[in-house]
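Q: I'm teaching a short session on how sequence maps to structure, and I want students to see two examples side by side rather than one. Could you give me a first protein with its sequence written out and its structure tokens following it? Keep the formatting plain so it prints cleanly on a handout.
A: Of course. Example one:
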Amino acid sequence: MDKKTILAIILTSVIITAGMLLTQYVNERNAPPPTASSYSVPEEVTETPAAEPEASIQVEETVPDPAVSELPEQNFEKKHIEEETNLFRIVFSSIGGVVLDIDLLTEFDKSEPISMVLDGDTDSGTFNLAFGGSDAPYIRDVFEHQRIQRGKQIIHNFSRKYHKEGRNFTLTKSYRIIPDEYLIE
């Protein structure tokens, strides 16, 4: 390489790095200070096989009315929701907004589709959440379900409002399915 090419690569790297550091500094400076009662949902990023889905979880915190300490009763229907693509069939439960079963429709074991959820017959499903530590019980409340079609994408949202430690927030679990793909986000 000639000197001009090396100099161009070095200058480009310096400009990109400086831009990233400046953006990070501005974002940190403009961010509100964290509060002791903030809710956060840890995200684990792990590499998973293509057929194993990942859940998207959102927590939307709202400022409560001081006169209201509890939320109104939420009576959502207990139901199982089944979605089928040409590659797999997935079954959701509105109880906890969990995935009960995923059957691969192109892979068989003794003429039966292979199930990707191995919870036995407990009906507890997968992608469970809990408020508290690792020994806290799973959330077994009934969530509101909404199915959204965006082009080829199919989105299943499960949401429920909560009141904890003097705060109101909405917990939403979203599953995005794209036909012709094994990946579920």
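Q: Perfect. Now a second example for contrast.
A: Example two:
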Amino acid sequence: MVDRKVLAFILTRMDAPGVWIRTERMRMGLSTRDLARLAGVSYPTVSRIENGHEQPRWSTIEKICAVLGRSLTPIADDGEQLRLADLSNAWTKDATGDHHPEWVRLRGLVDHLRRRPLLVAQAILPEPPPSRSELMNVLLAAVAEKLADDHGIARPRWTRKRPPLRQPWSLAARASKRDADEANIPEQFRKRGLLIPVSTIWRDREVIPV
């Protein structure tokens, strides 16, 4: 829940909630339908609020603010707001010069968003700064696209600027393991040359800590 004191402060100082909502929604690159879907509010309700035809209920504005306003969104329980843009450096280089993503950090982000789906848009819409690893640049785009598709919102525009890898990259060294993984590679990854099974990042719900 959004802190009601914070909401009261904002709402008593805005000329019209609909104007603020539309401005923040457009700033994040969300359509009205995207916002409605993420907030769990009907599309006509969001549209009427934005156009000044309806005063939102407190519960409705809480849901919308949780999606739109980072300053109005309760920070994660551990005090940290996790974003894909913070993971550009989440990779290492071995002695041979090969790059290796830090899977633990990626899993942590995905686990966090499974517990707090309202934060998906905030987590994926800011473009991650360019990484010195081409693999990481492409992987972050693939993760953003899968998260967007899984939650029924538009893919971030920045992912279009990141082309597929020039050579396919596989996590498995052995051909037999690659064949076993083949059926479990997300389409968003496959199109970018990432031969990575979904379980590498998306863990079973049973093992995600609450």
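Q: What should students look for in example two?
A: Point them to this: The beta strands are 91-93, 99-101, 169-170, 194-195. Also worth mentioning: The chain has a mean pLDDT of 82.
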